[in-house]
Amino acid sequence: MSLLAPHLAWLEQIDTYTSACGLPIPVFALNHDALDEKIMSTWASHFRNHYCRDDQLNFLKNPMLTNSEYLLAEKFPHETIPPGPSVRAGDFAEILIADYLQYVRNYQIPRTRYDRKGGTNESTRGSDVIAFKKLQDIVSENDELLVFEIKAKASENSKSNVLQNAIDHSIKDELRIAESLSTMKQKLFDRNDVEGVLLIDRFQREPDYPCKRRYGAAAVYTTSALQKEVISNSTSTDHPNAEKLELLVVSANHLMALIHALYQRAADEA
Question: Residue 25 in contact with residue 247, Cβ under 8 Å?
Answer without folding.
Answer: yes
